[in-house]
Amino acid sequence: MLINDAYAAAQPAMQGGSLGATLIQLALILLIFYFLLVRPQQKKIKEHNELVENLKIGDRVITNGGLYGKVAKANGMEITLEVAENVKVVVDRMAIATLAVAEDPKEKAAEKKAEPKKTKAAAKTKASKSTKKTK
Questions:
Q1: Cβ contacts of residue 58 below 8 Å, gap of 6+?
Q2: What gap in Å lies between CA 78 and CA 116, rounded to an integer?
Q3: Is the pTM above the cut of 0.70?
């Protein structure tokens, strides 16, 4: 019995914070949580829904599974993608992750041919500048 009384006497009195200060702190935490997590996620969902609703035939897309294809037909919640010649796949609208950058193989080949010319020309100009400096 004496030990319990001594132990109780040694404990400091519990300081009670005001309810208003606690509620303000909780509100600030929730406000920060909203602006850092909830709001950006809502914007992302809204942008994705707009993207999916505005799909047109001929758009090149990437699905959530990583499948690249061109929209061949869109009806209701189903999208028919052409992934290769005469190969069509039906996917749900929400399975579309993003639009793919349209790349034409002919344009890609033209870019590859043009790149070495640009780099050679740049190398020549750099070489001529360096020889001018040494003279």
A1: 70, 71
A2: 44
A3: no
